[in-house]
Design a protein that fits this description.
Helix content is about 20%, strand content about 15%. The protein contains 7 helices and 12 strands. The structure holds iron/sulfur cluster (2 copies) and FE2/S2 (inorganic) cluster.
Amino acid sequence: MSVPLQPPRRLIEITVDGDPVRVPEGSTVLDACSAAGKDIPTLCYGDTLTPKNACRVCVVEVEGARTLAPACSRRAEPGMVVGTATERARHSRKIVLELLASTADLSTTPRAAEWIEEYGARPDRFGEEAATVAQPAKVDNDLYVRDYSKCILCYKCVDACGDQWQNSFAISVAGRGFDAMISTEHDAPLTDSACVYCGNCVEVCPTGALSFKSEFDMRAAGSWDESRQTETTTICSYCGVGCNLTLHVQDNRIVKVSSPHDNPVTHGNLCIKGRFGFQHVQNVASQEDAIPVSGPVSSSVSGSAPGSVPGARTAPADG
Ligand code: SF4
Ligand code: SF4
Ligand code: FES
């Protein structure tokens, strides 16, 4: 399949922390900051999704603007003067990190600990009585786990499941104010929902609130170790669409599957077969006694057809 080329975009120049930067028209301030080598924290931003402006951890100061601007969504304009490390911007990021880390468990959010240290954030200053979203993880199927004690309500999963990619609309926001949470319809188990187990929500979740069951089990057993994992991108062999799979392998076993976000056709999205159908590679059914407790596939999957989901209501789309 050929990918249509876009017409060339003219370059515009803005100033980032005193230095001129040229970026294609239509770029965001975050694009310009990245081009200038600035490391801006992001959480709700997704490179395959429309910016949601939910977390505000990426704010920068724009000369002449009354309020701080979210770098991930604000379009760069010719002549714009941006400060990424002003006292006001850094203070705002610090408060955002304190609020998020005091309410949600950020232990599996990549770089969260580094940012908390860098900005001098003190989530503990709200005291032990601070409201949290702590709750037990929802483990209601063999493929992926929802641990909403780690959820920062960034809405990326809702957008990926809804009209931006999957169009399944299996999950949405329920409740109001501090009680707002991501939920299936009527808080039903995933197996009774409209979920087709594409895992495209897992792909975009920035905190690990959504994770492969294999990763969840290995973390619980203390055997999850990304420093010992390799990533190999290959082609899904289940059908002729040819989606790219990135296999995450630890101790010679596939422990999860992601997909390259820069693929111009799939943009990181997969179906249930490519995302979760890796068990057959490891020949689980014939090696039951070889499955370690900390292994990537729960024993309840043994004997299942690859990609089958006990109780799943909706057949996966082909491809
Ligand atoms: S796995 Fe797919 S269908 Fe199910 S909730 Fe996630 S995005 Fe929606
Ligand atoms: S589950 Fe993950 S992707 Fe969904 S809102 Fe929570 S943090 Fe964001
Ligand atoms: S990353 Fe920009 S508002 Fe969340």
